[in-house]
Amino acid sequence: MTASASATGLAIEALSVAYDKVEAVHGVSLQVAPGTIAAVIGANGAGKSTLLNAAMGLLPAAGTVRLDGRDLRRVPAEERVAAGLSLVSETRDLFSAMAVEDNLRLGAFRRGRSDLEESLEAVYARFPRLKERRRQAAGTLSGGERQMLAMGRALMSRPRVLMLDEPSLGLAPLIVREIFRIITALRADGVAILLVEQNARAALEVADTGHVMELGEITMSGPAAEIAADGRIIESYLGLGGSAGG
Ligand SMILES: Nc1ncnc2c1ncn2[C@@H]1O[C@H](COP(=O)(O)OP(=O)(O)OP(=O)(O)O)[C@@H](O)[C@H]1O
């Protein structure tokens, strides 16, 4: 077990990603401390998903990604999972024909059997609805349940840093609230959370820090409450009706 004194969370430094010759992410730096939520908001195509996929090691990138101080530059994606980094992608890729529980088991990266059962019980405690549906095929779940399963699977590897790409996408407001409640519970357990969202209002309400991403760059960073109160942000991302407190 790593000493918690060395737990510094996620540090991304000068990350750049290009698709062919087009740079989608330019020199992005941000940190996420353990037990905090950092939200990245921005319009379609701003580069948010590219940023997370590169941090996970799924895309080649320039720059540095550190997990609790460890440089992950030469570490492939599956070893990043073993190191404590996990990503729930926007597409919530699940094995549709497989049962909920089998999808969860696949997330238990290199775990021994007793460890795996313990992780499974911990996920079921967080998502009782998944336990009720554990024998059901993943493809028959509702959108909200699918998001829960994608999150539950990521938690099976017991990440210290969890990256979430648009967890609220396509979900009804009540389910969104439930998903965000679970995200704040994970923060309370000490997980560092990097949350990418187009639902800027919901994201800034739960986040500690906020970053605005525009055309591949971070154009504003600060305490989430300050970002949510900024006139330009309200106009561009939060719509009419003002602050994120309402
Ligand atoms: N596989 C790819 N090949 C070429 N260009 C890509 C590829 N994936 C993304 N891009 C481009 O990179 C830019 C950033 O895309 P990205 O998906 O990271 O944005 P985003 O902020 O996550 O948007 P959204 O919220 O719509 O998912 C866009 O201009 C997009 O067209």
UniProtKB/TrEMBL annotation:
<feature type="domain" description="ABC transporter">
    <location>
        <begin position="10"/>
        <end position="240"/>
    </location>
</feature>
<dbReference type="InterPro" id="IPR027417">
    <property type="entry name" value="P-loop_NTPase"/>
</dbReference>
<dbReference type="InterPro" id="IPR052156">
    <property type="entry name" value="BCAA_Transport_ATP-bd_LivF"/>
</dbReference>
<dbReference type="InterPro" id="IPR017871">
    <property type="entry name" value="ABC_transporter-like_CS"/>
</dbReference>
<dbReference type="Pfam" id="PF00005">
    <property type="entry name" value="ABC_tran"/>
</dbReference>
<keyword id="KW-0067">ATP-binding</keyword>
<keyword id="KW-0813">Transport</keyword>
<protein>
    <submittedName>
        <fullName>ABC transporter ATP-binding protein</fullName>
    </submittedName>
</protein>
<keyword id="KW-0029">Amino-acid transport</keyword>
<keyword id="KW-0547">Nucleotide-binding</keyword>
<dbReference type="GO" id="GO:0005524">
    <property type="term" value="F:ATP binding"/>
</dbReference>
<dbReference type="InterPro" id="IPR003439">
    <property type="entry name" value="ABC_transporter-like_ATP-bd"/>
</dbReference>
<dbReference type="InterPro" id="IPR003593">
    <property type="entry name" value="AAA+_ATPase"/>
</dbReference>
<comment type="similarity">
    <text>Belongs to the ABC transporter superfamily.</text>
</comment>
